[in-house]
Every structure is written in structure tokens, then in C-alpha cells.
Design a protein that fits this description.
With 95 residues, this protein is mostly beta strands. It has a single domain, classed as RNA polymerase II/Efflux pump adaptor protein, barrel-sandwich hybrid domain (OB fold (Dihydrolipoamide Acetyltransferase, E2P), Beta Barrel). It is 0% helix and 39% strand. It contains no helices and 8 strands. The strands form 2 sheets. A 4-stranded antiparallel beta sheet has the order 1-8-6-3, with no helix packed on it. A 4-stranded antiparallel beta sheet has the order 5-4-2-7, with no helix packed on it. It is globular, with a radius of gyration of 23 Å.
């Protein structure tokens, strides 16, 4: 049986570093607790700055929640009917 010549292994290219993502939480425009009435986007949707992405009930009226930046919906953090406090995101965008 003939010997198989040894061929040096090519080194794999170093793994590229993942692109850093800037996560932007989207909050109710009101301080205190509010009820999420609707979420108008889904994970993966593209949104533009100022686009209405959700609605909350405060002071016995519905109020729009607008995207603060242009980006993509990374996740929905609160569903309709949920009570959210100030500082608790309704959804998170990435740009």
C-alpha cells in the first residue's frame, strides 16, 4: 500500500465579527402605567422614524406610539392588553 502524501490543511478564515447592532427600545410617551391597545408591527418589519408602531391608552384616550428612529423591529416586548410602566419597552428596534 502506497503512502498518501500529507497535504497541509488550509486554515479557515477567521470568523468575521458580527456587526454591532444598536438596539433602541420604544416606550410609551407617558410617565406611569398605561395599557398597550395595539401593536401595529411585527418582528422583522422595517419602520421609519415617526411611523406609528403601537397605541396605548392613557387618560381614557388612545395615543400613538411612534418609532424614534428608522430601523427594523427586533422584538415585541409587550402585547395588547399588557400594562407597561414608564421605562418598560413596548418593542425594540435595531438600526
Amino acid at each position: 500500500m502506497a503512502a498518501v502524501p500529507q497535504v497541509p490543511m488550509a486554515h479557515a478564515a477567521p470568523a468575521s465579527r458580527p456587526k454591532s447592532r444598536n438596539e433602541i427600545p420604544v416606550y410609551s410617551p407617558f410617565d406611569g402605567k398605561v395599557e398597550v391597545v395595539s401593536v401595529l408591527v411585527r418582528t422583522g418589519d422595517n419602520v421609519s422614524v415617526g411611523q406609528v408602531v403601537a397605541a396605548v391608552e392613557a387618560l381614557k384616550a388612545n395615543h400613538d406610539v411612534k418609532a424614534p428612529v428608522t430601523g427594523v423591529v427586533l422584538r415585541i416586548d409587550a402585547s395588547p392588553g399588557a400594562i407597561v410602566s414608564s421605562g418598560q419597552p413596548i418593542l425594540t428596534l435595531v438600526n
